[in-house]
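Design a sequence for this backbone.
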């Protein structure tokens, strides 16, 4: 469990990867929709779990629950 913010990260548009805002490593967020301002201008959902932004693609039909665990 993280108690103190120690690191700041960019949250990015899940469509085009453009930087949007800063969050820190204690953040938790879901159900918040942001509009990409620097890139594609589309809306995306902001999901942060325990200080890590989760990129959920807007088309759940063909996205088989991607786990970003590249070893
Ligand atoms: Zn974008």
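Sequence:
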């Amino acid at each position: 469990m993280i108690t103190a913010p120690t690191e700041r990260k960019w949250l990015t548009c899940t469509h085009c990867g453009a930087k949007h805002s800063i969050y820190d490593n204690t953040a938790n967020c879901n159900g918040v929709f942001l509009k990409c301002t620097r890139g594609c201008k589309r809306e995306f959902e902001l999901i942060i779990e325990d200080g890590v932004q989760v990129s959920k693609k807007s088309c759940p039909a063909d996205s088989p629950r991607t786990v970003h665990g590249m070893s």
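Strands lie at 8-12, 19-24, 29-35, 43-49, 52-53.
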